[in-house]
């Protein structure tokens, strides 16, 4: 019996394990589940509580090191460095590593770097911290020495960063190679911030922007594939001054010697380019070494040439004379009869020397510095007209040369006949030294006031003021003819036969100038304190002015006047400037405008 063929048995549907499409479906499901987990974690980190996780990473894993920007240099007009940065190092610690041996490290660091032991110990022991500054701006040689010593004391055990926990990084140190030269202007930088002078007032220009590097650390090493980012530092810009380092140094030397010789309280010297208004030297004494400002008196850190105000005395007669000539009231040869005393509204006006009735020209009044003659000549001008001229000369307004703390000076808003009599010969009005230099320079510059500058090019001061030679302004104060006529009077001041300041002469050059002897005001009582400010301001060559120089000596303890004290200092500084810049000697003799009639 034959059997019939067997039918295939039915089986239930099953996934074919050899089918690739099946395997892909499984893989996609697994990937989707994994991405879901990552997404949920990302939402948690970034959306639900991002700050707490960032803080945790910062505290436990992520290390941040600053990358200091290189501060811009401060340069003189010839590119000579007055302030710059030299190699330095910062020393930082990983307290999670340094804590176990903090006492010995703190002792060594304190001894070698003159740090406070207890504050250093505290930094080395900071809980839950992986970064702390131990010392900033350490000279590179000192930093190398202390790290070498630490390594030597840790022989016998590993002394790399994982165990010792200290490291060094670049941290430039501010250096002032010229020391005291222009320190009152330049100022200085502290450990973490600028503290005075141009360093402070132009910090935004000089400082640049620090960068940083961040990385995740584990057991003293960077963790691969973890956070590792760097923002590069942007270096600061250089600041170029109009100052001439060599002339600045010499001017400071002369002013310091004059102050010492006359046992004075302080002194100032200013050298200005008559044509451009650029200040080539601005000397203050006492001064200080910008590399060690902590050893100086607080009162010596700024520039007295701009912050201190005083009555200018008879140098102001130059402004009065120029205004009178410009207004057509007088000439150099105008005749005046000078009594021994002059009874005015509220007081008796006298001269610095005893005399009977004198017959002087206006040139003689300036040459002999007669208060009485100046007041009589000024009677021809109204109070409003005189004040308008003085404002145009720059009195009562800051020069805005870009020095923080510049004083405005004082020019009465309302000029009466009484204070006018005193103002015309330099009392009842106050100025700063740069203000007065710029005013005298009007006569040197053909009657045009050119605004003074200390910054070459352009810069923006901390208060937003735009300063520098790019912003120089010019305005006609008196006519060119009036300026020349005033020069003729000023030149007679240094004439040894008729003037009061023969010591201000510079051999080979015609010099025009004016003396000043003014009583000093005590700020506490608002009264004269019995001391004087002695000064001399002028320009040379008188027939073709190149430089204007102004010297002031405050409160000398030795007798003298503006001519005998300020005049010789003026002559030394002027001679140096003329020689340094190769100005040819005058090709003509001083004028002989009559001083008497």
From TrEMBL:
Gene3D superfamilies: 3.30.450.330, DD-peptidase/beta-lactamase superfamily, Penicillin-binding protein 2a (Domain 2). The keyword Membrane applies. InterPro entries: Beta-lactam/transpept (IPR050515), Beta-lactam/transpept-like (IPR012338), PBP_dimer (IPR005311), PBP_dimer_sf (IPR036138), PCN-bd_Tpept (IPR001460). Residues 67-217 form the Penicillin-binding protein dimerisation domain. The keyword Endoplasmic reticulum does not apply. It is found in: Membrane. Keywords: Membrane. Residues 268-574 form the Penicillin-binding protein transpeptidase domain. SUPFAM superfamilies: beta-lactamase/transpeptidase-like, Penicillin binding protein dimerisation domain. Belongs to the transpeptidase family. This is Peptidoglycan D,D-transpeptidase FtsI family protein.
């Amino acid at each position: 019996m034959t059997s019939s063929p067997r039918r295939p048995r039915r089986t239930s549907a099953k996934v074919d394990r050899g089918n690739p499409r099946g395997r892909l479906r499984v893989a996609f499901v697994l990937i989707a589940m994994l991405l879901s987990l990552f997404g949920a974690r990302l939402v948690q980190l970034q959306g639900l509580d991002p700050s707490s996780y960032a803080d945790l990473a910062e505290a436990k894993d992520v290390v941040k090191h600053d990358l200091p920007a290189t501060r811009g240099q401060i340069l003189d007009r010839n590119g000579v460095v007055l302030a710059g940065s030299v190699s330095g190092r910062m020393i930082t610690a990983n307290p999670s590593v340094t804590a176990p041996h903090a006492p010995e490290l703190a002792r060594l660091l304190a001894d070698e770097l003159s740090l406070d032991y207890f504050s250093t110990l505290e930094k080395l022991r900071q809980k839950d911290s992986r970064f702390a500054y131990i010392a900033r701006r350490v000279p590179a040689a000192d930093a190398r020495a202390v790290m070498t010593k630490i390594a030597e004391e840790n022989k016998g055990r590993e002394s790399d960063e994982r165990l010792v926990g200290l490291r060094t990084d670049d941290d430039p140190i501010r250096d002032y190679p010229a020391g005291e030269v222009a320190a009152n202007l330049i100022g200085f930088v502290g450990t973490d911030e600028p503290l005075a002078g141009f360093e402070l007032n132009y910090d935004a220009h000089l400082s640049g922007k620090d960068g940083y590097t961040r990385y995740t650390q584990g057991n003293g090493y960077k963790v691969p594939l973890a956070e590792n980012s760097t923002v590069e530092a942007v270096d600061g810009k250089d600041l170029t001054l109009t100052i001439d380092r060599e002339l600045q140094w010499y001017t400071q030397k002369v002013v310091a010697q004059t102050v010492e010789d006359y046992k004075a309280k302080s002194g100032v010297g200013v050298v200005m380019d008559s044509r451009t208004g650029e200040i080539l030297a601005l000397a203050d004494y006492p001064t200080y070494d910008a590399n060690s400002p902590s050893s100086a008196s607080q009162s010596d850190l700024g520039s007295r040439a701009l912050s201190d105000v005083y009555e200018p005395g008879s140098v102001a007669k130059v402004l009065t004379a120029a205004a009178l000539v410009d207004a057509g009231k007088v000439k150099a040869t105008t005749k005046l009869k000078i009594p021994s005393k002059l009874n005015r509204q509220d007081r008796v006006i006298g001269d610095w020397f005893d005399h009977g009735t004198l017959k002087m020209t206006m040139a003689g009044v300036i040459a002999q510095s007669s208060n009485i003659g100046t007041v009589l000549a000024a009677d021809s001008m109204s109070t409003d007209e005189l004040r308008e001229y003085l404002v145009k000369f720059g009195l009562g307004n800051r020069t805005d040369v870009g020095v923080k703390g510049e004083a405005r000076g004082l020019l009465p808003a309302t000029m009466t006949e009484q204070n006018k009599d005193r103002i015309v010969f330099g009392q009842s009005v106050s100025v700063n030294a740069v203000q007065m230099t710029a005013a005298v320079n009007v006569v040197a510059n053909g009657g045009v006031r050119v605004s003074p500058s200390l910054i070459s090019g352009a810069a923006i001061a901390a208060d937003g003021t735009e300063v520098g030679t790019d912003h120089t302004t010019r305005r006609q104060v008196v006519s060119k003819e009036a300026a020349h006529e005033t020069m003729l009077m000023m030149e007679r001041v240094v004439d040894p036969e008729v003037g009061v300041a023969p010591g201000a002469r510079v051999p080979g050059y015609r010099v025009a100038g004016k003396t000043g002897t003014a009583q000093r005001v005590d700020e506490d009582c608002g009264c004269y304190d019995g001391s004087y400010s002695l000064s001399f301001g002028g320009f040379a060559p008188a027939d073709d002015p190149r430089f204007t120089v102004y010297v002031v000596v405050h409160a000398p303890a030795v007798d003298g006047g503006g001519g005998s004290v300020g005049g010789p200092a003026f002559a030394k500084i002027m001679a140096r400037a003329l020689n340094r810049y190769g100005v040819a000697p005058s090709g003509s003799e001083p004028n002989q405008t009559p001083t008497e009639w």
